[in-house]
Write a structure and sequence with these properties.
The protein is of the alpha/beta class. The chain has three domains: about 5-215, Rossmann fold (3-Layer(aba) Sandwich); about 285-395, Roll (Luciferase, domain 3); about 395-499, GMP Synthetase, Chain A, domain 3. About 30% of the residues lie in helices and about 25% in strands. It is built from 16 helices and 26 strands. The protein has a seven-stranded mixed β-sheet, with helices on both faces. α15 (about 450-460) links the parallel β25 (about 435-445) and β26 (about 470). α9 (about 220-230) crosses α10 (about 240-250).
Length: about 500
C-alpha cells in the first residue's frame, strides 16, 4: 500500500469534505485529489527521479506529497533554514531531481547540476490544469515514499528512508478512517522537513480532519490562528509550548475549541507541562515519542495519564509526567544493555523497537537489524507499569567515574528552581573522573549564584550529579525544530576550558 491510496480512499468516501485551509474557503478532498493527479501527470513527464520540496508550509505541500506517491518518486523536503552553501550542497545530493521551490528561494539554488527547478507559482498552475487531471498516469510501483534529511549537527545530514509500507502502517494502525467530524481542525506549525509535518498530512487526510498550515511559527501567530480557526487539535515541540503558554497567559486566552494538544520532538520540561495543564485544563495533552526512522510516534503518554499524574500525591505516579508513556500496541520495544542483553525493569539501556512502521535505514546505511530490531541510540528505562522514560541520546549521557548520568534528570531539578528559566547540562572532559558535570543556565527573576544552584541540586540528587562548572547565558541554542544544540554548547565550553 502506498501513501497516495490514503487520499484516494478519503476522496472517494467524503469528496466534499473541507480538508485544507479555512473552513469557509478551504480545499475539499476531491479537489486535493484532482490537484495531486494533475501534479503527478506533470511529474511523470519530468526526468527527475526524486521530488524535492523547498519552501514554507502551504496547501500545495500535501499536493506534492501525494503526487510524488502517485507517480512513484520519493518526496524529499529540504530545510530552507540552511545556509546557502549547505543548501546547495544538500540539494546537489538529490540529483537527478525536480525541485518545487518557493519563488523567493529560487536564487539560492539556481544552476545546481541535475536539479530541475520549478517555481511554486508555476506548480500551482500545473495543479489547476484540468487536462492534466484527466490524463492516465503511468503504472508506478513505488517503494521509497519520503526521504528526510537529519539536522546534520555532527556532520553531513543523512537521508532517512521511509518506505510507503512504513508510513501507511503507522497511519492505519493509529488513525480511524474518516473518524474526525467536520468541526475538527488541526493546526500544523512544524516545518515540512520534520517527520511530524509529514505525519500530520497523512493522518489528517486519512482521518478526515481539516489541516490548517502555518507558513512559519510564531507564538503570537499560533494563538491567533488557533482562536480564529477554532482549532481542535495541534502538535508542538517543547520550546514552542513554553512560548505559546506565555502568550496565552498574557492575553488571557482560553482557546475553548482546542481539544487535544500533542507534543514531542524533544524533552518536555516537567514544569512546562504542569503549567500547560493548569492554564488549559480542558485540553487533552498527549506526549508522543518517536523518531524520523520510525515514521513518527512509537510511544504515547495519553490524556488520562496526564490528569492522574498531575493530581497524584504518589511521587512514582506523578513522575510519569516525565515519561513518554507506553509503547504503541502494534510495536515491540525493549531496553538493552551494551552487549545486547535485556535490561530489567528500572535499569537504563538503549531503546530498541521493532514493527512494520519502523524503517531504520538511510540511503547510505541500513541500521535496522536482520531480525527487524532498530537500535534508536536513545537511552531509557521502563518502570514496573510499562511506562517508558527517555533519557536522551546515548552520545549525550555523562560518564563520571564509571557512573552513567542522564543530563535530563539534572536539568529537571534545576528547572524547578524559581530563578531558572532554561538549562542545559553537559559532560566535559576531566582527567580524574573522565567527565565533569557542567550546566549552562538561563536565569529569570533574579541572579542565583552557582553556590545556591549547586546546593539546590545536591539536596535533591547525589552530590556526584551536582554540576561543577556553571555558565550563565541569555538564551540556549535550539534548532528550528526545537532540539537543543547540546553538542554546540559542549564544543564551546570545551574551548573555554582549554583556554
Amino acid at each position: 500500500m502506498h501513501t497516495s491510496l490514503l487520499l484516494e480512499m478519503a476522496s472517494d468516501a467524503a469528496p466534499e469534505r473541507i480538508i485544507l485551509g479555512e473552513l469557509a474557503h478551504g480545499v475539499t478532498l476531491v479537489e486535493l485529489h484532482g490537484r495531486a493527479k494533475a501534479a503527478a501527470a506533470w511529474l511523470g513527464k519530468q526526468s527527475g527521479e526524486t521530488v524535492v520540496y523547498l519552501g514554507l508550509n502551504s496547501p500545495y505541500l500535501p499536493v506534492a506529497v501525494f503526487a510524488s506517491g502517485l507517480v512513484g518518486k520519493p518526496f524529499a523536503p529540504i530545510n530552507y533554514r540552511l545556509s546557502d552553501e549547505e543548501l546547495r550542497r544538500l540539494i546537489t545530493r538529490t540529483a537527478p531531481s525536480v525541485a518545487i521551490v518557493d519563488d523567493d528561494m529560487l536564487p539560492r539554488v539556481q544552476g545546481v547540476a541535475g536539479v530541475q527547478l520549478v517555481a511554486s507559482s508555476e506548480f500551482r498552475a500545473v495543479c489547476a490544469d484540468v487536462a492534466l487531471r484527466a490524463e492516465a498516469l503511468p503504472f508506478a510501483d513505488p517503494d521509497i515514499g519520503v526521504l528526510l534529511f537529519t539536522s546534520g549537527t555532527t556532520g553531513e545530514p543523512k537521508a532517512a528512508v521511509l518506505r510507503h509500507r512504513n508510513l501507511t502502517s503507522y497511519v492505519i494502525s493509529t488513525v480511524e478512517f474518516l473518524g474526525s467530524d467536520d468541526a475538527e481542525a488541526a493546526l500544523v506549525s512544524v516545518p515540512p522537513y520534520h517527520i511530524a509535518g509529514i505525519s500530520a498530512i497523512l493522518t489528517g487526510i486519512y482521518g478526515g480532519r481539516r489541516i490548517v498550515h502555518m507558513p512559519a511559527f510564531t507564538p503570537e501567530g499560533w494563538v491567533s490562528v488557533a482562536a480564529q480557526e477554532k482549532i481542535s487539535h495541534a502538535m508542538v515541540v517543547p520550546t514552542m509550548l513554553g512560548r505559546i503558554l506565555d502568550v496565552i497567559e498574557e492575553r488571557g486566552e482560553k482557546l475553548p475549541h482546542l481539544k487535544a494538544l500533542s507534543y514531542g520532538g524533544g524533552r518536555m520540561p516537567q514544569v512546562t507541562i504542569e503549567r500547560a495543564l493548569r492554564l488549559l485544563p480542558h485540553v487533552d495533552f498527549v506526549n508522543a515519542y518517536g523518531l524520523t526512522e520510525t515514521s513518527s510516534t512509537i510511544a504515547v503518554l495519553g490524556p488520562e495519564d496526564h490528569r492522574v499524574a498531575i493530581a497524584s500525591t504518589d511521587e512514582a505516579v506523578r513522575r510519569r509526567l516525565g515519561s513518554v508513556g507506553k509503547p504503541l500496541p502494534t510495536l515491540e520495544l525493549e531496553i538493552r544493555g551494551p552487549s545486547g542483553e535485556l535490561m530489567p525493569t528500572g535499569q537504563s539501556g538503549e531503546i530498541y523497537v521493532r514493527g512494520e512502521q519502523v524503517s531504520g535505514e538511510y540511503l547510505s546505511k541500513k541500521v535496522i537489524q536482520d531480525d527487524g530490531w532498530f537500535p534508536t541510540n536513545d537511552g531509557g528505562w521502563m518502570d514496573d507499569q510499562g511506562y517508558l522514560y527517555v533519557e536522551g541520546r546515548l552520545d549525550d549521557v555523562i560518564v563520571r567515574g564509571g557512573e552513567n548520568m542522564s543530563p535530563g534528570e539534572i536539568e529537571d531539578v534545576l528547572r524547578a528552581h524559581p530563578n531558572v528559566g532554561d538549562v542545559a547540562v553537559l559532560g566535559l572532559p576531566d582527567n580524574e573522573w573522565g567527565e565533569k558535570v557542567a550546566a549552562v543556565v538561563v536565569v529569570k527573576d533574579g541572579q542565583p549564584t552557582p553556590e545556591e544552584l549547586a546546593a539546590w541540586v545536591k539536596a535533591r540528587l547525589r552530590s556526584s550529579k551536582t554540576p561543577e562548572l556553571w555558565e550563565f547565558r541569555e538564551a540556549l541554542p535550539y534548532n528550528d525544530t526545537g532540539k537543543l544544540l547540546r553538542r554546540l554548547l559542549k564544543a564551546e565550553l570545551a574551548r573555554v576550558l582549554r583556554g
